[in-house]
Amino acid sequence: RLTKLPDWVSSLNNLASLSLRETHHLAEDSFEVLGKLPSLVSLKLYFRGYAGSALCFEEDSFPRLKQLVVDNQEYLQELSFHGGSPNLERLTLAFSRVPRGGINGIENLLCLREVEFFSHIIDSTFNEVFEAAKIHPNRPKVTRDDQPSTEAAQASSGLHLVLSSSGPILCL
């Protein structure tokens, strides 16, 4: 079990991808070290990969991060983006219970293209993110693995519906 990241991790300037699983005790101070890694583009926090109650992406942290996976972190109560991760494109989430502090600051992720929910999906959490995506400048796609996406359903039926200002257009 790791209680903190080894000191040498902070010198991994070329580290592009990191997955943490069952580290049990890594918390906020270790997360700050990861946020300073200049080349990190993918961070995957799997089961028990993080022990903190809040996962906050603060200003100037995770400058190149493009992909973030947060998978059933049992102590996590809040996920927030306050200026950090300015290049995040894909956010993949699974929660075993509703994060009481919510998911905040999605509007600050100006490069966000997709949010995917998987595993046990909590409808209220999904709906919160879905509504935030509606007013996001990029209009990121929000999907859940327990239901086919609208695009997938349309593609499988062989029909395509386009909504335009002049009215709906049905394409076969």
From TrEMBL:
Alphabetized Gene3D superfamilies for the sequence: Ribonuclease Inhibitor
Region feature (Disordered): 139-159
Domain Disease resistance R13L4/SHOC-2-like LRR as annotated: residue spans: 2-141
Chain coiled-coil ranges: none
Pfam families, alphabetized: LRR_14
Keywords for this protein: Repeat
Organism superkingdom: Eukaryota
Name this protein carries in UniProt: Disease resistance R13L4/SHOC-2-like LRR domain-containing protein
Organism field: Aegilops tauschii subsp. strangulata (Goatgrass)
Top-level taxonomy: Eukaryota, Viridiplantae, Streptophyta, Embryophyta, Tracheophyta
